[in-house]
Amino acid sequence: MSLENKVAIVTGAARGIGLAIARRFVMDGAKVVIADVDDEAGEAAAGDLNSLGEAMYIHCNVAERLDVRNLVAETLNAHGDINVLVNNAGIVAGADFLDLEEDDFDRVLSINLKGAFLCSQAVARHMVEKVESGGAPGCIVNMSSINSVLAIPNQIPYCVSKGGLSQLTKATALSLAKYGIRVNAVGPGSIMTDMLASVNDDPAAKNRIMSRTPMLRIGDPSEIAGVAAFLASEDASYVTGQTIFADGGRMPLNYTVAVPDED
Ligand code: NAP
């Protein structure tokens, strides 16, 4: 198993893509810490995953420095090490540019971007200390998006946060390369989670997405978990500072795809 006995923190893992990553990591042999703000869903997720391997839940708002400090301390207390961090927690706040509220801009940036910075710095301090005392380096995987490069006019803070996360990935990778600590990102396209659930009941919205998705289907969270598992594994031992896009072909597409009628 590629993550046998590794300790992995996955933020925002009570549901959606984060939960799929937590599940995949547990199946790959990791001891997983689910960090989220939804305590009920987080505890339930950890309970489910414990039937497959080892998982625990820790409450953590990634935008809060003290919560992050506590997450690292509690993980080290429980497992004595942290080998992998997945910065997955993320939110959206839709509004036209002219109506966008400052608070919404700040909220999205503080979770999606500052949260990844706080968690990365706190975990990297532990990883560097370990390397300096002869231990093996760990790695960080950020959950970016195709919207780190492409843009949606009524998702300004989200696109800005993911663009920032792309630069955070590169700059952190360069800073930590000398310790052997790798930092990469996954850039999903449209993935079927609660974030996208409304599309299921809206044929026009689904058609819009399909017209920009050459593989003509919405992705499954497990397909993002597979990329995260690769980046977290030794198979990616010489990969750092990269974003791997898993988007059904959207990024290379210029125009649109002809979408067949649904019967
Ligand atoms: P999701 O289903 O909404 O799950 C996100 C989880 O993060 C929820 O459990 C949420 O809790 C939690 N969370 C929110 N704020 C948090 C905070 N401050 N601290 C810790 N946890 C927090 O989202 P998803 O679709 O799985 O997305 C996961 C990641 O993938 C995000 O970074 C997103 O930007 C990225 N992504 C998703 C897609 C997609 O199509 N789904 C595409 C590209 C990128 P609450 O529910 O209580 O808020």
Automatic annotation (TrEMBL):
Keywords: NAD, Oxidoreductase. Pfam families: adh_short_C2. Belongs to the short-chain dehydrogenases/reductases (SDR) family. It comes from Roseibium marinum. The keyword Amino-acid biosynthesis does not apply. Residues 6-189 form the Ketoreductase domain. One of its GO terms (molecular function) is oxidoreductase activity. PANTHER family: DEHYDROGENASES, SHORT CHAIN, ESTRADIOL 17-BETA-DEHYDROGENASE 8-RELATED. Gene3D superfamilies: NAD(P)-binding Rossmann-like Domain (3.40.50.720). This is NAD(P)-dependent dehydrogenase (Short-subunit alcohol dehydrogenase family).
